[in-house]
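Re-run with default settings, no changes from the original entry. Doing this only to confirm the output is reproducible before filing.
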Amino acid sequence: MKTILVTGAAGDVGSHLRRELAGKYRLVLSDFRPIKALAAGETFAPGDIAKMSDMLRIAKGVDAVVHLGGFSVEGPWDMILRANIIGCYNLFEAARRNGVKRVLFASSNHATGFYNRDVKIDHRVYPKPDSRYGVSKVFGEQLGSLYADKYGMQVFCMRIGNVTIAPPDKRRLSNWISPRDFAELVCVGIEHPDIRFEIVYGVSANTRTWYDNSNASRLGYQPRDDAETYAAEILAKEKPGDARAELYQGGNFVFAEIGGDPNRILPQLKKAAKVRKAVKLQKKPKPKPKKT
């Protein structure tokens, strides 16, 4: 049985993936947040992807890496730089130094979010990121290309849409992927013998898809779900959205800064900052009692 490192394993996507891959692989779960409820076949390796020493430690002795770690929404450049640029480099370089040949990189639909919704795109299109977050995913893809060509690594880039039990809105009817389909795609990335460098879309077999995902099909990906199952219910409740968001595949990410000011904090960032602060406080050693 192969041993697979999953970074960012405490997040929503990681949690779905753990459940779907249970029993198929030995899973090494890594995150800066603790994961306490481990299932059979899982181990926890705490680490911060922005620290090379952490990545070198957790990437030892694994057969492949599924790199979900990073900041998953738009944010200030300093945060994107640390988590999604420096962290991504650290992961690839740690894998290389530890002799891990295969890396599955969680790219994003936001790497191509400035394509219009009436355009169907494939893995060969020129990137059109819709945000600093999207730029970081383009960086990760190109870093993967470098490590594949220069060091002979096997890199599988998944431009993930939205991994949820059910699509939450109209936009996600086009880019949704069910947890079981996502796990199927990940298994293709781990098991296919001939991968060198590939870009695929992490989407289910959606009727309203914006993507020609024939490259994933060529490699054996056979999604079983379609967001259209939820369309009637979602469209009945959908309210008119912002005209800018409705035009582009990236939706709200094309104008995700409050008031157009990247220095103003989005609600998601405030929540993430609170989590990081809480984790740091937990790690602080208790002061030793003073001698009297």
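The radius of gyration is 19 Å. Residues 258-263 have pLDDT under 50 and may be disordered.
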